[in-house]
Design a protein that fits this description.
Helix content is 73%, strand content 0%. It has one domain. The protein starts with a helix and ends in a 6-residue tail after the last helix. With 52 residues, it is mainly α. It contains three helices and no strands.
């Protein structure tokens, strides 16, 4: 599970991160709104633990 979560955190594209920066979002907001949902999506593909 840890490997899938780390892979999901790294799967966030530069365009998505840049878009959040252009909206004035800091690291924490980008993490919660973009990176964490990507990690959850990668995790749920195999285990179904995260809800959508």
């Amino acid at each position: 599970m840890l490997v899938n979560t780390i892979a999901g955190l790294g799967a966030t594209g530069a365009m998505e991160r840049d878009l959040m920066r252009s909206y004035g979002a800091g690291y924490a907001k980008t993490f919660v709104k973009v990176r964490l949902p990507n990690a959850c999506r990668a995790q749920s593909e195999l285990t179904g633990l995260c809800t959508r």
